[in-house]
């Protein structure tokens, strides 16, 4: 297919790639001044109604799930020759396959990617859909103001779970597809996707895909020093017997997350780098970060650590957050009940996982900040039991702020938790902060407080 000038109002810039069923183009939405990816059904399938149905079904699934972890579909339309096309999120950093081809990934980054891929597949399973073609080239990477986003893509083989017993043709990619997928008419369930997640995990960790099933060589034999629990999990996911695999994508992902959060992850990853963004690509993110966040350098107890400034224009507050924690950013996250009762509106949250901020089971590290009118003591926050036991209470007093910090050194085995209520001396406006860290670091808390600014 030669390069078209435009698809509707979308001006074509260049081809991004093509496969058996479709071609993907980079285009510019000149009305909204925004780049998009446009996926167009291949010409040789123009009159195959079953292929057209599959193409449009992919668009419907992506649109209906509408998840942070999946490629978004913004629009669909039909060309003059009858071929459908869909307008999607443009992933400007390529795919996980591209990342793997550049060289072995640090273990923490590999586990971070795997966790986010698993979250995308968990969303699909919750929607009642099996992906059936999970592989590194079908996981895209996009710049965002707080780092790199993982986007699960290419649902061309996706099917509803309740139709799993009716699959009539084998589908998937050899090396990543479960053994039962290679059998036409095989009875599939979500554990087929778990097998594929195991194959992707194997490649993320070792740099190479697993062998044909049964897989007998553990990743740790290729990359010595891995946690035994990681070897065990990946081999279990790659089991020929699906009864031996983790029950679903969520179970698999939760176990990956637990391994990643273990206190002594191999490779001696520095404390302050445990949630770092890929620094070697930080320059490519600069343009995307300018509008919403600006990186600044600070020691913060660790030489070379980076901070990201995030702000809530409505509340007129700016907070500097360790960039390694700021994987996601919300400006209107709900405050805890006791703080909301004191008059606080929803505040800003920059964290590794904003959806799990209030969870007691899943670690999510970052900073939450909101402004409370007046100068309430907010001592009631210590009674809301975000963590077990009584907190340590200490006074905050410097040239810019005075108030109180309530600190739990260990919060549900997920690191340290600190609640802070401070206000400028003589000013009736209180800033309430929540800071969740992998380890108890009061110096980090003090540095974050010092850098808070009311605009």
From TrEMBL:
Q: Which UniProt keywords apply?
A: ATP-binding, Kinase, Nucleotide-binding, Serine/threonine-protein kinase, Transferase
- Gene3D superfamilies of this UniProt entry? Phosphorylase Kinase, domain 1 (3.30.200.20), Transferase(Phosphotransferase) domain 1 (1.10.510.10)
- Statement: the UniProt record of this protein carries the keyword Transferase: yes
Molecular function GO terms recorded: ATP binding; protein serine/threonine kinase activity
- In what residue span(s) does the Protein kinase domain sit? 10-265
Which residues of this UniProt protein bind ATP? Answer: 39
Coiled coil regions in record = none
**EC number annotated for this UniProt entry:** 2.7.11.1
Return the PROSITE patterns for the record.
PROTEIN_KINASE_ATP, PROTEIN_KINASE_DOM
Iron listed as a keyword? no
Q: Name one Pfam family in it.
A: Pkinase
Which PANTHER family does the annotation name? MITOGEN-ACTIVATED PROTEIN KINASE KINASE KINASE 20-RELATED, SERINE_THREONINE-PROTEIN KINASE NEKL-3
* Protein name as catalogued: non-specific serine/threonine protein kinase
What species is given as this protein's source?
A: Nocardiopsis metallicus
